[in-house]
Amino acid sequence: MKGRNVRVARWAVLGLLVGALSVVAAGCGGDDGGSGASTEIEGLGTSLEEISTLAREEGEVNVVQWAGYAQLVDEFTAATGCKVNTKDGASSDDMISLIETGAYDGVSASGNASVRLMATGEVAPVNTDFIPNFADVQEGIQGKDYNSLDGQPYGVPHGRGPNFLMFRTDEVPETTDSWSVIWDDAELAKYGGKISIYDDSIFIADAAVYLKATQPDLGIDNPYELDDTQFQAAIDLLKKQAAAGANYWPGDVAKQIGEYTNGDSVVGTTWPYQYVQLTAADPPVPVSAIKPKEGTTGWSDTWMPYSKAANPNCMYLWMDHMISPEAQAAVAEGFGEAPVNLKACDLTTNPDHCTEYHADDESWWEDIYYWTTPVADCGDDRGEVCKTQEDWEAAWTEIRG
Amino acid sequence: MTSVPVAEPPPPGSPGRRLSTFFFRHPRVRLGVLLALPLAWLVIVYFGSLFVLLLSSLWDTDPFTSDVVHDFTLDNFRRILETPVFRNVAWRTIQMAAMVTLADAVLAFPIAYYMARVASARTRDLLVIAVLMPLWANYLVKAYAWRTILSDGGVINWALDPLGLHFDGLSTVGLWLVFTYLWLPFMILPIYAGLERIPSSLLEASADLGGRSLTTFTRVILPLAFPAVVAGSIFTFSLTMGDYIAPGLITSEQFIGTVIYNIRGEALPTAAAYSLVPIVVVIAYLLVARKLRAFESL
Question: Could A93 and B265 be called an inter-chain contact, meaning their C-beta atoms sit closer than 8 Å?
Answer without folding.
Answer: yes
